[in-house]
Every structure is written in structure tokens, then in C-alpha cells.
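pinging the channel bc i need a second pair of eyes. not urgent but kinda urgent?? the chain im working w is below, pasted from the shared doc
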Amino acid sequence: MPVVMIEGQHRNKVKVEMYIYRLIKELKMNRLSSKVIFINFVTRLDNEAQGLCYGYNNPDSVDLQIARTSDGQKIDFNEMMRTIAHEMVHAKQWFRGELGSTGKGQWLWKGRNAGGWKYENQPWEKEAYRLEQMLYEKCWLDQNDLKELK
């Protein structure tokens, strides 16, 4: 299991930690014991993003930043949990070598230069958006919460 370091203010600390470990297992990262995931809850991020994942050219660690506000508005706690699911998909991509960086601000996707792609066309974003709701529902919500949603 990767080492997970969580910093910053957030509520339900125990439930958030359990959620992150369920995400790790669901994304099949539980055997990656040499990896480190840093998660930092911050007040806000540049360009009002809700979350970011960085690898810093180190294949053994990622840094996830999760915003508590965007456009001056508080982000709903459940939306922050969906954002964690989205960013954890990027962590999986990084650790598996699917997503990388040239170190010069250029992204690599499966070893190929991925510079110049529009955000909505980036395959790593397509995968993260495709999986985030399923991961959130499977790993965060309990069965009573799911009944209320349906």
C-alpha cells in the first residue's frame, strides 16, 4: 500500500482516510508499497481549479492538492471527495507510467509527447472524468447514501 500523507484542514478525517485507502484498492494501487501520495487540502488553487496532481518527474511520489474554495465560493465537501477520486486516477496514471512529463512543461501520455492537446481531448482527463463518479459512489458513499441518490 502506498504511504499516504494528508495535510490541511478538512472534516471527517477518519472517513477521508478510509476513503483514500478504498480508492487506492479500487484503482489497484494497493501493491505499490514504494510509492508516496501527498494530499494537501488548500484554501484555493491557481486558475480556480478544484484539484491538481503533480508527479515532479519522480515516478515514486505524487502531490495532490484539493481546494476548499473556487471563485470565492466554498466547495461542497462531497464535491471535494469527487475531486479526490479524479486526482487519484491521475496518481494511478503517474505510478503506472501512463502519464509523465518531459520536465520542460510538456506532458507525456504512454511515452508519447502530448503537448498541444486541448484539455477536453487529453486522454488522462477523459479517463479521470469517466471514473470519478463511479469511484466516489463505490468508495465514499455508504449504501444508505446511494439509496437516497436513486
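so Residues 77-95 form the longest helix (19 residues). and The chain has one domain: 3-145. — does that match what u expected or am i reading it wrong
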